[in-house]
Design brief:
The complex is a heterodimer. By secondary structure, chain A is an all-alpha fold. Chain A has 13 helices and 2 strands; from the N terminus they run ααααββααααααααα. Helix content of chain B is 73%, strand content 3%. By secondary structure, chain B is mainly α. A two-stranded antiparallel sheet of chain B has the order 1-4. In chain B, strands 2-3 form a two-stranded antiparallel ribbon. Classes of the chains: A mainly alpha, B mainly alpha.
């Protein structure tokens, strides 16, 4: 049981990391980003191209990837999302789906024939064994980064001017504009942050295992996390990532023997449906008073 | 329904005002179009006939999805899961339990409709993103179940379906499948057109435009939303049964999330809230993907050093994704709006007011 909980927390930390990237975007622009997974995939493979194909040193790869992801974020916002300002949500939802499809197409054309690749090792990959409980070192690194990331953006939203402006934009674009916030510039910045977060998550998860198409599906694996935590809440998805990770691992341990394997993959979605029916705004989401 | 009538045509009784086909020209076009539609499979090659049957199935799904998303405003990113429910229920009942086809199909439509009701339940409480995400959850659960229940569904390997026998008629050649699909499309298009005009369809539009106002004027919100889910999943169930007839080999990979995204893309490109759009959208998207695949394969054999045939899927993702992006930016009302502007321009010519 303890082993299941600990490995659940370790798995959950990568869910948290991905989920927080998406929540930051939702919280600052009001858009649920289905393209996050595709951007993770692109980021991971761009990094791989620099480090394995081009053989650059690690610091040069990091700088080059940051530049590439900044450009991607800038272009997505400028040419895909900005024309949709003020349109109904199905437009922005469909746009992120389209961008996701577009990017996974780009992935398949450029890197698809390579299958699953892996980075040269730059994180410790071993295991600690304490009292018979196995703790993966790579996942512990991800946990560490996730906590740092959470603290950084918590402070960013709470104490910096641009963090507060981003939250104002989520409330209402028009009002934010009328109190003097440059909505377009802020949205551009938010998208760049989101793309960098996606690349960070993609590279870390890729480094702890392998880099492949499965990174793209992460976006759908973390949907339960985001709903459980609440769409607007950073600490919600931080906590919910661990909850979902633990639920997944515990159900893999206890329910799989009963129904015969594989329940792990849908356990988060069953949880999602229960949460949606019982408490749709999640643990920490902003409960909007809206009678429907 | 502010359709512009040609000069000199006016309604003299309620029957005329309610008619779908109003003028002699429209009658001529309809009859000629139907005859052409039924002659077409005879002249087309096998490849094009396959494409046409596939197109018809897509049109049926999109007609249903458009009623749900375009008319009622409830976003569903899990439509291919409903198709899967219909297809696999037909397959299991027909192939595994050897029930007659005319029992298997209605049962599978009922099962798909029930699935639609269950998935629609959150829509009573949820809006927008939250609802879209719950349909994604349904999509994943169904996809997993298809692998999980492998005694029934054949798992990832798939399930073979013997040629369908309706009464004494065995649907086994491509031509018969195409005709079956065309008949279904014609009937279901007529139904969709009518649903959109009746009380139910108008209630859908009211709920989409402003649910609070709709409730104030006496539209039962929960019932209307559930009806929309019910109708769209019935359409998906019928399409699923046709899938079973058409492919005769069901695999979970036919019913992925990507397929659901394509359905939604067809609705957007065709035009939300338009029956014509539900026909134009699938035609556009399916033809685009097929053309990309065919021409890219030719290009790849011409330049084998830079391109490989395996990139074809990726290229069709790129072209379709790009098409959706461009439509959302430049023509959010879709192809049907272009069609309407063309029609009114034609009617008003040469005086454009």
């Amino acid at each position: 049981m303890l082993q299941a909980i600990i490995s659940g927390i370790l798995v959950g930390s990568s869910y948290s990391l991905v989920a927080m990237g998406m929540v930051i975007l939702y919280r600052s622009s009001g858009i649920f980003n289905f393209a996050h997974g595709a951007v993770m995939l692109l980021g991971a493979f761009i990094f791989w191209t620099f480090i394995s194909l081009a053989g650059l040193p690690l610091w040069a790869c990091i700088i080059a990837t940051i530049i590439a992801m900044t450009l991607i974020g800038f272009f997505v916002e400028r040419f895909a999302m900005r024309p949709l300002l003020g349109q109904p949500i199905i437009a922005s939802l469909m746009m992120t789906l389209a961008v996701s499809v577009l990017f996974s197409g780009v992935y398949q054309v450029l890197w698809g024939h390579r299958g699953i690749v892996s980075y040269p090792q730059f994180m410790p990959m071993g295991h600690w064994v304490i009292n018979g409980i196995v703790i993966g070192q790579a996942n512990t690194w991800i946990l560490f980064v996730t906590i740092l990331y959470f603290i950084f953006f918590k402070f960013y939203f709470k104490f910096t001017l641009s963090g507060k402006q981003m939250q104002a934009i989520c409330e209402s674009h028009v009002i934010a504009q009328s109190v003097g916030i440059d909505v377009k510039r802020m949205l551009s910045r938010v998208w760049i942050i989101a793309c960098l977060s996606a690349a960070l998550a993609g590279i870390l998860i890729g480094a702890s295992g392998s880099v492949g198409l499965y990174l793209h599906d992460f976006v759908f694996m973390v949907i339960p996390v985001i709903i459980l935590g609440g769409l607007e809440s950073l600490e919600g998805s931080f906590v919910a990532g661990f909850i979902v990770g633990v639920v997944e691992m515990v159900s893999a341990n206890y329910i799989d023997p009963i129904i015969g394997g594989g329940f792990r993959q849908v356990a988060p979605y069953v949880l999602l449906l229960i949460v949606l029916l019982a408490k749709p705004y999640g643990l920490f989401g902003w409960e909007r008073i809206e009678r429907i | 329904m502010a359709a512009i009538l040609p000069a000199g045509v006016r309604d003299e009784n309620y029957g005329q005002a309610m008619a779908i086909i109003r003028t002699k020209l429209q009658w001529a076009i309809t009859i000629f179009g139907l005859i052409a539609l039924f002659i077409l499979p005879l002249v087309l090659s096998d490849y094009l006939n396959n494409l046409m049957a596939f197109l018809c199935i897509n049109i049926i799904v999109v007609l249903g999805l458009n009623l749900l998303t375009g008319y009622c405003g409830q976003i569903s990113i899990g439509q291919s899961a409903f198709v899967a429910v219909g297809a696999y229920t037909t397959g299991i009942l027909y192939a595994k339990f050897a029930l007659p086809f005319w029992i298997a199909v209605p049962t599978s439509i009922i099962v798909a409709a029930l699935a639609g009701l269950v998935v629609g339940l959150p829509s009573v409480k949820l809006k927008g993103f939250y609802l879209a995400l719950s349909t994604v959850a349904f999509q994943f659960i169904v996809y997993w179940l298809l692998f999980k229940l492998d005694e029934l569904t054949g798992g990832g390997y798939g399930m073979a379906i013997p040629p369908v026998r309706i009464g004494g008629w065995i649907v086994d050649t491509r031509l018969e499948v195409v005709y079956l699909c065309i008949v279904c499309v014609v009937i279901l298009t007529y139904c969709a057109k009518n649903i959109a005009r009746t009380r139910t369809g108008r209630a859908f539009i009211a709920v989409r435009d402003n649910d609070l106002a709709a409730e104030v004027i006496g539209i039962p919100l929960a019932k209307t939303k559930l009806t929309a889910f019910l109708i769209s999943s019935i359409y998906a169930g019928i399409a699923g049964a046709l899938y079973a007839v058409f492919f005769r080999w069901l695999m979970p990979d036919l019913f992925t999330l990507t397929q659901s995204v394509w359905y939604l893309a067809m609705v957007i490109i065709g035009g939300m809230g338009s029956v014509v759009g539900s026909i134009l959208g699938p035609v556009f998207v399916v033809c685009l993907q097929e053309l990309t695949r065919v021409y890219f394969a030719k290009l790849a054999t011409a330049f084998p050093t830079i391109l490989s045939v395996g990139m074809g899927t990726g290229m069709s993702y790129i072209t379709t994704g790009l098409a959706i992006v461009l439509f959302l930016i430049f023509e959010p009302r879709g192809l049907s709006h272009r069609w309407e502007t063309f029609k009114s321009a034609y009617r008003l010519w040469p005086f454009s007011y």
